[in-house]
Amino acid sequence: MSAPRRVCALGGGHGLATSLRAIRTYAEEVTAVVSIADDGGSSGRIRASEGGPAPGDLRRCFEALGDGSMLTAELGWRFSGGELDGHALGNLLIAGLVGAGGDLVGALDEVGRLVGSVGRVLPATSRPVDLVADTGDWEVEGQVAVHRASGIVRLRLVPSDVSSPPEVVAAISGSDQVVLGPGSFYTSVLAATLAPDVVRTLAVRAGPLVLVANLVPDVESPELIADQLEVLEDHEIRPDVVLVDNAFQGTVSGRCAVIRAPISAPGGKIHDPVALGAALAGCVDANL
């Protein structure tokens, strides 16, 4: 079978950037759908002062999809000292364009043009949101706090009725393959799927949804992949395929197909983009 031509990847953080580096090795059209709920570090400071979306995970996607120019290479460079201390160059570029034009998708498209991006980067929601986790005993609000929480039974966005850009709906529904993960399970992977428009569109997608399993235990995640799948099911997200590394020792129960492939770099702690791309390119049939 030929590799999927149009691929949409959902998530956030370094995990999504890794998937994008893999996907660009085989797909003709690449779209990243990114959670913008971060409230820590430079992103959190920008949100607090400007009221705009968290730019950090958006920036990482452009680093992964850019043309290798000086601008692409230095998007993650951080200022040291003064009022800009700790801010990444790309974060300020994104925040500045959003603030100047008031058009989030338009601003991201312009950053993509500047860095020669081979794919499009879109926010999962049309405006900033916060993560709220229910542990059964109390609620925890904010991505940083959720990352530190334990016993999470439910995750939601505030506001709950936030819309997604129509470009997100079109990208998911028109993709030959949708990739979820890897990354922090609650604050990156699940967070990117919570918007009502995303949930609805994933339910009627044409291409298979592939969950890329983490290589090492994630402090946020249910320990077993089967438990992660159950959490996703509870949030109306139903992957067709789980992609795991050859070294994975566990089992995966449920309705998902399981594909094992050598997708880790030497040392087994991070994914190798080329190997991951080859494995994802082969996941063209949800019945494999």
Q: Key features?
A:
288 residues, alpha/beta, Rossmann fold, 2 domains, 7-stranded parallel sheet, 3-stranded antiparallel sheet, 12 helices, 10 strands, 37% helix, 16% strand
What does this structure look like?
The protein is an alpha/beta fold. The protein is built from twelve helices and ten strands. The chain folds into two domains: 1-35 and 157-288, Rossmann fold, CATH 3.40.50; 36-123. The protein has a seven-stranded parallel β-sheet with strand order 3-2-1-7-8-9-10, with helices on both faces. Strands 5-4-6 form a three-stranded antiparallel β-sheet. Strand 8 (209-212), helix 11 and strand 9 form a beta-alpha-beta unit. It is globular and about 50 Å long. The N and C termini lie close together (12 Å). The model has no long low-confidence stretch (mean pLDDT 93).
Q: Which class best fits the helix and strand makeup? A: alpha/beta
CATH topology of the largest domain: Rossmann fold
Estimate the mean pLDDT confidence: 93
The CATH class of the largest domain turns out to be Alpha Beta
Q: Biggest sheet, open or closed, and with what strands and sense?
A: 7 strands, parallel
Helix-strand pattern: EHEHHHHHEEEHEHEHHEHEEH
Task: Give me the count of strands.
Answer: 10
Q: Write down the domain tally.
A: 2
Radius of gyration: 18 Å
* Percentage of residues in DSSP E strands: 15-25%
Q: For the largest beta sheet, what order do the strands appear in spatially? A: 3-2-1-7-8-9-10
- Please tally the helical runs, counting DSSP H or I stretches of 4 or more residues: 12
Low-confidence stretches: none
CATH architecture of the largest domain: 3-Layer(aba) Sandwich
Principal-axis shape equals: globular
